[in-house]
Give the backbone structure.
Amino acid sequence: MAKQIFINLAVKDLQKSMDFYLALGFSNNPQFSDDSGKCMVWSENIFLMLLTHGKFTNFTSKTIADTKTNIAGLFSLSLDSVDDVNTLMTNGLQAGGVEPNEMRDYGFMQQRTIEDFDGHTWELFYMDTSKIPQG
């Protein structure tokens, strides 16, 4: 079996969150979705589990962080071009996401940030490895 990654996020409004991630380009896998969790697919090995707070608490004894005011993690998605980054940002913003800062250009990498309704932070970026400074 291939190695896979599953990112689990606690969300307040499951349907609204699913719609946001669909706008970003994720697809839904209904086989692993129900009324308390939605399995969102980024690629054949990367999955995002959107879980209601009730379901999320079944997996931890810790308090769920308020990611609107506190950062719990930064999640990054690599894209094929700056145009792809900008398209995903536009779609995400139209779906209700928030862009907390301007695009950052590192020469070899362009990066934009979007937050979902719960404040989960995503870095969307394009990297041209041929432009990485040597030395």
